[in-house]
Amino acid sequence: MKREMQNLPPVDSSRRKWLKTVGIGAGAAALSACVDSGVKELSAAGMQTEHFPSATPNLNDGLIRLSSNENAFGPSKKAVEAMQGELLNLCRYSDATVNVLVKKIAAQEGVSEDQIIVTNGSSPILFGYADWITKNGNKLVTSMATYEGVPRGAEFMGADVTYVPLDANMDFDLDAIEAAVTNDTTAVYICNPNNPTGRAVDAAKLTAFAKRVSQKAQVFIDEAYIEMSDAYPSNVQSKLAADGYNVVICRTFSKIHAMAGQRLGYAIMPADQAKQMGRMLRMGGVNYLGLVAGMASMEDLENLNTMRSRVGTERAKLTAAAEALGRPYAKNPQGNFIYMDTGMPHDEFATKMRALGVKVVGRTWPGYDTWSRISVGTPEETDACVNALKAVYA
Ligand SMILES: Cc1ncc(COP(=O)(O)O)c(C=O)c1O
């Protein structure tokens, strides 16, 4: 993919220079070689090696951004081309195009079209759902150390949220969560694979759990990272929605599709609820370029498979580094990040990593004050992160 095609800024030479020098001590030469070979490899594959939106130059602060679980490999070439072909058509409202995407999702997930709502990213669904909880009984059960969108939104709106501890493997403790659900629980939030732990729950166990628990309370399954998991697509839970269980399945184009800045997400739920929530969340519609890119990216199966493998390769480098450094971490992560016990307050770790040029997540999860989430980057970025980790624990 040519840089000019995407109208991206030229590679910042100071950043490139910095990448070459961030290899600390003995690692410098190796890193430098790695940077060059990584860049060559990506260029040979026609991949963009650096992605920074030119309208926000401060994002390109020279730090490697491993803080937000972004997909640094960038979107499908087909998605970019599809958007370029539509730039002059932005004068039209996009409602009719939403219906085209809805048909594609319905066909892919085996659900009916009236069960689907589409939004600008999945965050509006999470916050809309928090609102829905407060209006439908006001009680949520979820796990500690999970993505905050629904639980924090629900708390903010005044709901009663029960946080069940993770089990010994840092998994959602489905048995304990089920035991915490009562007849007046409104909903249960499950994130699979979970952010920040990266752990995926066993698909059959989750299906059985959802079938039982959804008789009492709605089960919301956030599948933001599901396409990155080794067991994709067999661990997708849309069939529950197709079979009429009281569940919500939520997806985003921000992760494997690498469209975080373009904003596109969707949820599958009972049709009457989709009608109600869809009306509330529509709030002016969904952006047209996101729809165009999302549809092209869904069809680009080669890109999705390549991406899963690229992310897996980078993730393995981070888990190998944690092993080599003797740091505990949540085993077998399935998203584009690892969750590691840093052995120090998380903000001290973040400050040390920042001083070495790597930005890791700036917040922590209650109960896990020494743990930090580190996203994978491009090969050169992940390698630089590994060198920074070695320096922190030298
Ligand atoms: C588990 C999970 N769900 C949902 C989101 C929201 O993503 P977006 O609004 O970009 O779709 C994120 C973002 O990091 C996430 O980690």
From TrEMBL:
The keyword Protein biosynthesis does not apply. Keywords: Amino-acid biosynthesis, Aminotransferase, Histidine biosynthesis, Pyridoxal phosphate, Transferase. It is an enzyme of class 2 (transferase). GO terms for molecular function: histidinol-phosphate transaminase activity; pyridoxal phosphate binding. It catalyses: L-histidinol phosphate + 2-oxoglutarate = 3-(imidazol-4-yl)-2-oxopropyl phosphate + L-glutamate. Residues 63-389 form the Aminotransferase class I/classII large domain. GO terms for biological process: L-histidine biosynthetic process. CDD domains: AAT_like. It holds the Pfam family Aminotran_1_2. Its EC number is 2.6.1.9. Pathway: Amino-acid biosynthesis; L-histidine biosynthesis; L-histidine from 5-phospho-alpha-D-ribose 1-diphosphate: step 7/9. Belongs to the class-II pyridoxal-phosphate-dependent aminotransferase family. Histidinol-phosphate aminotransferase subfamily. This is histidinol-phosphate transaminase.
